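Re: [ENG-882] Designed sequences occasionally contain unexpected residues at chain ends

Forwarding the minimal case from QA. Structure tokens:
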């Protein structure tokens, strides 16, 4: 039997399906729109049970999933959503012991998922040029107990990565094609590369430069999610769906000595970025965020109490 312990994160789901994540601290209370829940009523009790607020409203008490934690990060910027993150983890073959580079960190949604998967012996090296963003991600990682698996670095990745022979590398930056040489220098031969961009012209630029740098097994895709209303008598799709949020591009690194055989690109194509705005901002920030109904959890999740 799984029992809630002091210091655990607990997920509370109200009768209206609103969701709250709290860290259990003796003597504290969670005030909700349906009444007050005492932490002491949860500590030492099994998960999967209901707890009553002081006005008799029932909340289900569960362990939060990785999906819940990602959607609950305190965000300064748009995050990569779980529908993309799950595919990223599989395509990059992320698992216990993996060494992964990520740039940029943003609010740390993908960072959290990577750290969760590489435990206990792996490592995530996350690069972000903006100090305030790196600090925000650090706080989010601390809240969920994953900070020890991540090295956060405030660095312009144009200067290169510190690590070598890493298993995988993911670029969530506005112009990822500008950093492929640095990526290939850090990746092990045959290592996994991934990136996310919101527009087709960015995909075209990235594809051209992946070919130039002799990456192989290149793939482009987008992921659409269509939910259904879980009512047996009236089972049908929800009124809205999470459609396009970004394009995912995956490839494999090859022997760097092969780059000399790559087809030539125009010099200006290799050096001049497209006029797409802040080149340092993660690509996920440029994606159109789903509204609360489309995202499903955004309205329901509130900042964790006591984290």
């Amino acid at each position: 039997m799984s029992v809630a312990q002091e210091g655990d994160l607990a997920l509370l789901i109200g009768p209206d399906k609103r969701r709250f994540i709290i860290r259990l601290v003796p003597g504290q209370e969670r005030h909700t729109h349906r009444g007050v829940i005492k932490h002491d009523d949860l500590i030492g009790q099994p998960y999967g049970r209901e707890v009553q607020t002081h006005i008799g409203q029932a909340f289900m008490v569960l362990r939060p999933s990785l999906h819940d934690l990602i959607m609950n990060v305190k965000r300064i910027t748009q995050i990569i959503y779980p529908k993309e993150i799950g595919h990223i983890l599989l395509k990059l073959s992320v698992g216990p012991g993996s060494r992964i580079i990520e740039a940029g960190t943003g609010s740390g949604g993908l960072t959290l998922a990577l750290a969760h998967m590489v435990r206990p012996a792996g490592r995530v090296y996350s690069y972000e040029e903006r100090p305030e963003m790196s600090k925000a991600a650090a706080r989010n990682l601390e809240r969920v107990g994953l900070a020890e698996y991540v090295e956060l670095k405030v660095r312009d990745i144009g200067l290169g990565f510190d690590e070598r022979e890493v298993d995988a590398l993911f670029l969530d930056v506005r112009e990822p094609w500008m950093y492929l040489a640095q990526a290939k220098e850090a990746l092990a031969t045959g290592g996994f590369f991934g990136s996310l961009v919101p527009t087709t012209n960015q995909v075209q630029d990235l594809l051209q430069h992946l070919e130039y740098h002799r990456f192989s097994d290149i793939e482009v895709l987008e992921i659409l999610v269509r939910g259904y209303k879980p009512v047996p008598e009236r089972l049908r799709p929800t009124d809205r769906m999470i459609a396009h949020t970004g394009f995912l591009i995956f490839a494999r690194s090859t022997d760097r000595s092969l780059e000399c055989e790559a087809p030539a690109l125009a010099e200006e194509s290799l050096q001049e970025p497209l006029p797409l705005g802040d080149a340092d901002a993660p690509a996920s920030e440029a994606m159109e965020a789903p509204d609360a109904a489309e995202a499903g959890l955004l309205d329901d999740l509130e900042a964790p109490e006591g984290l």
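QA comment: On inspection the terminal residues look reasonable. Residues 271-279, 289-307 have pLDDT under 50 and may be disordered. Proposing we downgrade this to a documentation issue.
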